[in-house]
Amino acid sequence: MDNSEALLQGKSRDNSSDYHKLSGILNYEIKNNEIRLNFKHASLAIRFLTADIFRVIMAHSDQKINYKSTEAVIEHNLTYDDFIFNEKDSELIIKTDNLVLKLKKENFLLEVFNKQGKLIHKDHNEYALGWKKQKVRAWKSFEQSQRFYGLGEKTGWLDKKGRIYEMWNHDTFLPHVSDTDPLYQSIPFLIAFNPKNSYGIYFDNSYKSFFDLGSEGQDYFSFWAEGGELDYYFINGPSLKEVVSKYSQITGTMPLPPKWSLGYHQSRYSYYPQAEVEQLLKTFRDKEIPCDAFHFDIHYMDQYKIYTWDEDRFPDPEAMFSKMEENGVKAVTIIDPGVKKDPEYKLYQQGMENDYFCKYLDGKVFIDKVWPGNCAFPDFTQSKVRDWWAGLQKDYTDLGVKGIWNDMNEPAAFNKSDTMDVEVMHQNDGDSGTHRRFHNLYGFLENKATFEGLKESLDNERPFVLTRAGFAGIQRYSAVWTGDNRSFWDHIKLAMPMLMNMGLSGITFCGTDVGGFTGNSNGELLTRWTQMGAFVPFFRNHCEVRAVSQEPWSFGEKFEKIIKKYIELRYKFITHIYNLFYQASKTGIPLMRPLIMEFPADRQCQNLSDQFMVGDSVLVAPVYQPDKDKRMLYLPEGKWIDFWTKEVYQGEEHLIVDAPLEKMPIFIKAGSIIPLNDKLNYIGEKEIECLELNVFLNEENNLGSYELYDDDGLSYNYENGVYNITEFKYQYTDNQIIFNIDRKEKNYQQEFKDYKMIFNNLNKDPLNIYVDGNQLSEFNYSDNRLEFKVPVVINKITIELS
Ligand code: GLC
């Protein structure tokens, strides 16, 4: 490393002019869905997956094109050969149904136009694609008005413009500040946002890579990797939603999680002994604070040896789990990848005997320190190792464990580099490589093994896996939490854009340690953090070993009451949240969304980093500063209804709203329907007999709809069609409201028997109500709110208005 690199902490500016560039196109060939271009010392394949997605792979230094994808890419059969090809003097032109690509012959350069002929993407005039020894790099032009989103777990604002980002999974314990980089995950997926023509670039390269998004004000952005292929996918939107959804066609969506995992999780480093856990359980249930999971951190193990129990601390884990289960609390146990080097330890013996561990080329097993002291590290690139690991899950599920929390899987090691020596080899079933190639995939492959093992051993129950490290596509196996944050106010603020961008990068199921991990939380901070956490996809309170307790009751009654109210609120929204998870599992669209995703034309939303949407209708504006009883927020176009007071606000306005400690501002977009359920102490505690359908009416002449998915929340029976889909639709005209219920799929024996219909913001007296033609005698109307109950089997409600 030279001095300038040291100053940049490894983020070398990597001089563009040092690279070899593509020369002019010598010749080309078209075969099926691909055009192959040959250059003096390089070749390039452009493969079409759909009319909107194409893949670009470069081979340099006279190597052959390598079509092998990383593990992030799912098996798919996307292929598109319906393009029209044309050759002109200076360029080759390829037309798909949605895009036109122009390839300049003389100095290679790619331009992409949309159907209307507008230029939407362009290689940089000077550099385009290049290589320098093993490095590969691409340069792209951009306009200053463009915004950048995605890139997974990154600090900073919503818009990622103006910085260099590094993709190298890293255990970053030092305080995460607004330019700390990298953290634990690497998701080399970038979204270039433009209100009308957004596109994405997924760089399928697992080596250490970088994205420079105009860090020196230059008129191009660039991405490069320290090895491997220049292999990227161009994903046309044109909308942000379409970019995100199409990205999931390449790296997959999150499978439907067990519903309990969407409830509240309580954790700390660590709850022990067994009696403390039992007391914790009793306290939650005595106080009737909802909770669905306890996490067991490293102290449950015998000398931190994974898949063992400290018998003094936990004499009978099975009995403890079964008691928890009776009270509706699931057990999630932490697992670190390091296997203690101890010749008398079964796992270490198995690993050594079967060649499961990562080793150097000379055969020496890589050993380094983690919590248990010296450890060996399973080589998850080998399928036999993944099978072994998958098989280990049964040891825990047999005891009653329902979820695994994979930590320290960057992998972390207590040395200067914080990780494995990059010269260590991974066998990768015959296609071996160094840790330089597999580092970013290490946690990903561990999670794959864990998920598959749990799935096998849980017998038709959906597993829950939580991870710290990951790579693109991690959503297929695991939820993600953002690692070791601190009990700082700033970390509530930092979490919002980070989690929103993770959602845009495929990771719907993400969250942050509520209350803060390192340092001591306090009542006000925990209260505000819990308010936000209640609307974040993964909702877990966790803190470190030295920190003061931060369970909901830890800071006195005043705070406990509010914290409880917000955990209860999470459960009131659980049907809606589960429904959004269902949608994410189908489309890849996250439930925690930046406002720009819903209001792409609104400039105010482009870098709005401290409020978010839950789905398309709930706007949440957490308070992230102490001593505040007001908050400024922005409401985009439309009418918005204050969730608490039901007051109606006109959008496209900045507002200062009341936000005393007990109130986090929540607004509902007028026109929407939101299902809310009764308070629950845990998922499945009792049948939800009656589901509230809250209609938040807009002006008259308004339409609204909501599609509700419902299943048992636990098994895979939905894969055999055991689920319901019900569509609710209403039309509000000047003298009536017609509300239709269409039970489109009804194979699941639904829990709820009735709907409590609530029409908010109804400014006209209801005269008569007919349910499937029969007049309803009982209803309540006051304060612009109409309420009545109907059985779920009905089809149509007509409300005549004065
Ligand atoms: C790591 C994890 C943290 C955990 C601790 C002990 O720091 O990020 O969540 O509590 O290790 O296992």
UniProtKB/TrEMBL annotation:
<dbReference type="Pfam" id="PF21365">
    <property type="entry name" value="Glyco_hydro_31_3rd"/>
</dbReference>
<keyword id="KW-0378">Hydrolase</keyword>
<comment type="similarity">
    <text>Belongs to the glycosyl hydrolase 31 family.</text>
</comment>
<dbReference type="Pfam" id="PF13802">
    <property type="entry name" value="Gal_mutarotas_2"/>
</dbReference>
<feature type="domain" description="Glycosyl hydrolase family 31 C-terminal">
    <location>
        <begin position="588"/>
        <end position="674"/>
    </location>
</feature>
<dbReference type="InterPro" id="IPR013780">
    <property type="entry name" value="Glyco_hydro_b"/>
</dbReference>
<dbReference type="InterPro" id="IPR025887">
    <property type="entry name" value="Glyco_hydro_31_N_dom"/>
</dbReference>
<dbReference type="GO" id="GO:0030246">
    <property type="term" value="F:carbohydrate binding"/>
</dbReference>
<dbReference type="Pfam" id="PF17137">
    <property type="entry name" value="DUF5110"/>
</dbReference>
<dbReference type="Pfam" id="PF01055">
    <property type="entry name" value="Glyco_hydro_31_2nd"/>
</dbReference>
<dbReference type="GO" id="GO:0005975">
    <property type="term" value="P:carbohydrate metabolic process"/>
</dbReference>
<feature type="domain" description="Glycoside hydrolase family 31 TIM barrel">
    <location>
        <begin position="255"/>
        <end position="580"/>
    </location>
</feature>
<feature type="domain" description="Glycoside hydrolase family 31 N-terminal">
    <location>
        <begin position="44"/>
        <end position="212"/>
    </location>
</feature>
<protein>
    <submittedName>
        <fullName>Alpha-glucosidase</fullName>
    </submittedName>
</protein>
<dbReference type="InterPro" id="IPR011013">
    <property type="entry name" value="Gal_mutarotase_sf_dom"/>
</dbReference>
<dbReference type="GO" id="GO:0004553">
    <property type="term" value="F:hydrolase activity, hydrolyzing O-glycosyl compounds"/>
</dbReference>
<dbReference type="InterPro" id="IPR017853">
    <property type="entry name" value="GH"/>
</dbReference>
<keyword id="KW-0326">Glycosidase</keyword>
<dbReference type="InterPro" id="IPR000322">
    <property type="entry name" value="Glyco_hydro_31_TIM"/>
</dbReference>
<dbReference type="InterPro" id="IPR048395">
    <property type="entry name" value="Glyco_hydro_31_C"/>
</dbReference>
<feature type="domain" description="DUF5110">
    <location>
        <begin position="691"/>
        <end position="761"/>
    </location>
</feature>
<dbReference type="InterPro" id="IPR030458">
    <property type="entry name" value="Glyco_hydro_31_AS"/>
</dbReference>
<dbReference type="InterPro" id="IPR033403">
    <property type="entry name" value="DUF5110"/>
</dbReference>
